[in-house]
Amino acid sequence: MSSDVVVFVAVVILVGLFCMQHHGIDRVGWLFAPVVFLWFLLIGGIGIFNIWKYDKGVLKAFSPVYICRYFRSGGRDNWLSLGGIMLSITGTEALFADLSHFPVLSIQIAFTAIVFPCLIFAYSGQAAYLLKNPNHVADAFYRSIPDSIYWPVLIVATAAAVVASQATISATFSLIKQALALDCFPRVKIVHTSEKFLSQIYIPDINWILMVLCVAVTAGFKNQSQIGNASGTAVVIVMLVTTLLMILIMLLVWRCHWIVVAIFTGLSLIVEGTYFSSVLCKVNQGGWVPLVIAAAFFVIMYAWHYGTMKRYEFEMHSKVSMAWILGLGPSLGLVRVPGIGLVYTELARGVPHIFSHFITNLPAIHSVVVFVCVKHLPVYTVPEEERFLIKRIGPRNFRMFRCVARYGYKDLHKKDEQFEKRLFDSLFMFVRLESMMEDGCSDSDDYSLNGQQTEQSRDRNYNGNRASSNTNATISSGDSIVPLDANTIRSAIQVSSPSEVDELEFLGNCRDTGVVHILGNTVVTTSRESKWYKKIAIDYIYAFLRKICRGNSAVFNVPHENLLNVGQIIRV
User: Fold this and answer.
1) What does each C-alpha distance from 384 to 245, 373, 423, 461 come to in angstroms?
2) Which one-letter DSSP state was computed for residue 321?
3) Which residues contact residue 361 at a Cβ distance below 8 angstroms, ignoring those fewer than 6 apart?
4) What is the helix, strand, coil percentage profile of the chain, to 5?
5) Which one of 167, 303, 492, 495 is least enclosed by Cβ atoms within 10 Å?
6) Beta bridge partners of 335
7) How far is residue 406 from each of residues 131, 266, 413, 444, 559, measured CA to CA in Å?
């Protein structure tokens, strides 16, 4: 086939692959492992056949003496060829990504027993074939396939390429989801495509961006050499970054001896630095593509994270003081209308500035106010029984509470259809447990469902350390957490004080009257004294990303008929 036909077929396959992403891979995922396994067996078997048929002496290449002779005889040209040789090990960097999906032992067995020997036989077989057919160097792999199995191998090769592409697409979706949880990427829509596997997700915006980039690279380069240079550049940089991060892990987490760290660093950088120096010379021959794409995503992620952090810092420093709230009295200086107002905020502590903006511009507020903070913790999942942290703000007659809803990477708030019901169940449980305390917490801001905590322990729970417990609820005092067994909780439910019954009845009536979701729509802009680069990051890039990304109402899964937006402008 001509090169134009090959490019056309490749583009058609790519477009078809991306257009099918919204269906998910739940139904065809079981085919992936057999296809890849068959692919490795075929290339390994073909390699053994070519070694036996053409030249068994090619196995001498296992001796490191030959690589020394290779560099000595060819000089700079052979050194530059390392950029192409790098392609023989592309994909090994994915082993680090696979560690989050498969056990370490399974990866070690698959790599040492299947992947490594099959690749060795495949490349050695091609080398043996080229020794007898040096003119076929441009397409040695397909030329070396026996005629009787050529078309089956071509079909399996195409299927394996599709599987590899799907793995890359799925990995990209997973990375974007984790970046979203850490506020390092603009808010985009995430769709779960499987009821069995929560890791199978689909992100429409990223899917179409990937499709455009892949088609542009395939149709724009048109030859394998430039695409290979682009791939080699990306892989070498990934390996270097992984090595540098591994050094930090060895020093800060594993606490390895500095000699061990020095040996690891030296050996790794010698190999990877040699490849990297060769790849740098291929930047103008296609290697610039991953660098440009990486730079664009870096600017987007940095601008979004910078703007988000500046907005969060403003809210942290502009919190409403409890003295100001208490000075307003139980009515908060307004008319308290029946109902419950859920005020969404990013603050896990304190009353947000948007609340003072709200009550100074509107004449009424709901009888019960709950400040809701949704936190995505850097853990895999948060158990359902530890999802909500509830505590009271101010005296009992103020009817103000705070709820921190915690989610891990695996969890997704958008899929929590019973969020409101579970929140109120936790709120009622908190009121019941509150009455069990000897001192009560009517005038305190330090008690919560799943924990009455000190400043240190409260910050630790909000900001993401492991949340794991087998108890349904806890009450803590000081630094110790006391589990509550089922009997204690049952007694709290059955034995109720008159004041508790009145409050529970009041909360139930307010919930039946109606629930309103109050969202703050904060516009971030720069001051006149800001530097030019800050203006570009905030006023242009961040503002543009805020316009095209999903709004808070979609992120928090808020019904539009019960939504109230409160706007404000902040300058950073």
Assistant:
1) 33, 16, 11, 15
2) P
3) 566
4) 60, 15, 25
5) 495
6) 364
7) 62, 42, 9, 23, 20
**Residue 548 in tokens:** 């095209």
End-to-end CA distance of the chain: 59
Pairing of strands 448-449, 388-392: antiparallel
Burial bucket for residue 543 (CB in 10 Å: 0-12, 13-18, 19+): middle
Sign of CA dihedral 69, 74, 80, 83: negative
Closest of 555, 492, 559 to residue 521, by C-alpha? 555
Q: How confident is the model at residue 95 (pLDDT cuts 50, 70, 90)?
A: low
Contact 126, 50 (CB under 8 A): yes
Helix ranges (DSSP H) in 257-352: 258-280, 288-317, 322-328
Beta bridge partners of 343: 371, 518
Shortest CA distance to 345 belongs to which of 315, 377, 300, 306?
A: 315
DSSP for 17-36 reads: HHHTGGG-STTTGGGHHHHH
C-alpha 494/C-alpha 487 separation (Å) is 10
Q: With a threshold of 0.90, does the pTM exceed it?
A: no
Helix (H) or strand (E) holding 532, with range, is helix 532-535
CB 7 within 8 A of CB 219: yes
Tokens of 147: 């005629």
Q: Tokens at residue 184, please?
A: 């390092």
271 pLDDT higher than 90: no
Q: Are 97 and 170 in contact (CB under 8 A)?
A: no
Q: Which helix (H) or strand (E) holds 516?
A: strand 515-525
Largest CA distance in the chain: 96
